[in-house]
Design goal:
This protein is mainly alpha-helical. The chain contains 10 helices and 4 strands; from the N terminus they run αααββββααααααα. The strands form 2 sheets. Strands 1-2 form a two-stranded parallel ribbon. Strands 3-4 form a two-stranded antiparallel ribbon. Helix 2 runs parallel beside helix 3, helix 2 packs antiparallel against helix 8 and helix 4 packs across helix 5.
Length: 247
């Protein structure tokens, strides 16, 4: 198995797209991204070795846990979807990608050809930073992070510092449910602290959502069996075979 993260990153990317369309709060999408790392991690626990799928924007968190290489996409994937983290996505990538380039004619040529050129220039810059040594690479990473991190909560949760904090919360938890809850609460705390200290710009209309999200997260039991029992009482069990999931 060489690629991981399809289910989780699809869920996380949906949240990001909905946030860009102002259908859900950006802080909600950011916290979803932290939780998505728990789901993506299962792939590696089952034997995946990477690189993580490029649209898995939670990959920096997973990389902090596993050490495996990660593919990422950002500004050069604007052909597929807009995002507020086009630069920070490149800060911890091992390979750089675009996504879903339609085969249409642009002024410069066919769209896939044009996007390959953009990828080439991005990768040349990354490789040049690496070639000039650790200090140059770290400076380039700093620019990528700082150009995005303060502008959107979805970017802020993917800074190296935030990724490490969320990763620590995940690996300290005894079960997947507890890990998801710990990741979410850590993300809420990081966003609150950054906004209060002036390191992150959150729109005032989203402040109440942080309180609401935290209250909802805190209602989730830490015990996985208890959580499963609660959910089984709410879902339509005719839509799936519970035994297939050992439930």
């Amino acid at each position: 198995m060489h690629c991981a993260g399809d289910t989780a990153c699809g869920f996380g990317n949906t949240a990001m797209v909905l946030a860009e369309q102002r259908m859900i709060p950006r802080v909600f999408a950011a916290i979803v991204r932290a939780i998505s790392a728990v789901r993506t991690l299962v792939c590696y626990e089952c034997g995946a070795v990477g690189p993580g799928k490029d649209c898995g924007y939670e990959n920096p968190i997973v990389k902090a846990i596993t050490g495996f290489p990660m593919a990422m996409e950002g500004k050069t994937a604007a052909c597929a979807h807009l995002s507020p983290l086009g630069n920070i996505a490149a800060a911890t990538c091992d390979t750089w990608s675009n996504e879903s380039v339609q085969n249409i004619k642009l002024l410069g040529g066919m769209a896939p050809t044009c996007y390959v050129e953009q990828l080439i220039y991005d990768c040349r810059m990354m490789n040049q930073a690496l070639a000039e040594g650790r200090e140059a690479a770290l400076l380039y990473r700093k620019w990528l992070v700082n150009s995005d991190a303060a502008l959107d909560p979805q970017a802020y949760v993917l800074t190296p510092e935030s990724s490490l904090a969320i990763a620590r919360a995940i690996v300290s938890a005894p079960t997947s449910v507890a890990a998801g809850k710990a990741a979410a609460l850590t993300a809420v705390r990081l966003l609150r602290d950054a906004q209060r200290e002036g390191r992150l710009r959150i729109h005032p209309r989203e402040f109440p959502w942080l309180d609401r999200i935290q209250k909802e997260i805190e209602t989730v039991p830490w015990d996985e069996s208890q959580f499963i029992d609660e959910m089984m009482g709410q879902v339509d069990t005719t839509k799936f075979v519970a035994a297939d999931y050992e439930l």
